[in-house]
Task: inverse folding
């Protein structure tokens, strides 16, 4: 028996919003520790890694490991049926071929349940080693979303260059070029609004705008975003979801031919 | 510039 209850359905709605442009289907792996999802987009350029810890749920029970392959389009349709203030409970029997979503209004006057067929997905998993990155940049997630949106008007790629002076985001295309430089916040009063740069070695990497814009769909999950970079390895864009876990995106760089 | 894929960097399990 698997059962996971969240007081606010909005978290699950936002998580789905944050992955559904990259993935059409994904496997939710549930065990004692919580719910995990790892999936690449069709082109294998980007990967989503989601963790929702058991202790972040209001109720969590998982007697046996459960693997639930879900069509994310169908799941999105179902979650649209939940009010933002509804509680949501996901339930599945052991070895079941369906999952049930139960939505309850705050006063318990409306209770709805939606059963969805599960899929048998045979998806590739990547083994991602623990990595020490040369640069980590933390900044307000809304600022990152704004930059990606602004720069993607000019070109298809963004060059991210991190040095001890700060971090620079650049692009160029038919109409011209654009650069945004961010320096570390001088005095940190409000941590959520700070730009914090840790750099062991300078790194410059190039990434496709389109994917960065997909990642920013997670903006409402977290006030801050962390970018981790090392030379010649994928970028990690992490949004910490308060009290429950994180969503991380990995993006393969563009390289000189 | 050419786009790489993640399988260039990480092994599949």
Result:
């Amino acid at each position: 028996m698997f059962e996971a209850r969240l007081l606010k359905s909005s978290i699950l709605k936002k998580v789905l919003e944050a992955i559904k442009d990259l993935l059409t289907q994904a496997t939710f792996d549930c065990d004692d520790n919580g719910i995990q999802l790892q999936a690449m987009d069709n082109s294998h350029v980007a990967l989503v890694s989601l963790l929702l810890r058991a202790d972040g749920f209001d109720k969590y029970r998982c007697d046996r490991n459960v693997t639930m392959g879900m069509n994310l389009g169908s799941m999105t349709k179902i979650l649209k049926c939940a009010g933002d203030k509804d509680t949501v409970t996901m339930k599945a029997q052991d070895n079941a071929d369906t999952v049930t979503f139960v939505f309850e209004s705050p006063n318990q006057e409306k209770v709805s349940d939606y059963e969805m067929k599960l899929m048998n997905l045979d998806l590739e998993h990547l083994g991602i080693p623990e990595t020490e990155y040369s640069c980590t940049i933390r900044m307000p997630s809304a600022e990152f979303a704004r930059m990606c949106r602004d720069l993607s008007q000019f070109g298809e790629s963004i060059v991210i260059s991190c040095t001890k002076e700060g971090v620079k985001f650049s692009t160029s295309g038919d109409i011209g070029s654009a650069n945004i430089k961010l320096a570390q916040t001088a005095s940190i009063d409000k941590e959520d609004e700070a730009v914090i740069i840790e750099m062991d070695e300078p790194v410059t990497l190039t990434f496709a705008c389109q994917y960065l814009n997909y990642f920013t769909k997670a903006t409402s999950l977290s006030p801050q975003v962390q970018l981790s970079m090392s030379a010649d390895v994928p970028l990690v864009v992490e949004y910490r979801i308060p009290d429950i876990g994180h969503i991380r995106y990995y993006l393969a760089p563009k390289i000189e031919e | 510039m050419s786009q790489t894929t993640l399988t260039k960097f990480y092994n599949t399990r």
About this structure: Chain A has a mean pLDDT of 95. The helical segments of chain A are 9-19, 72-79, 141-151, 209-215.
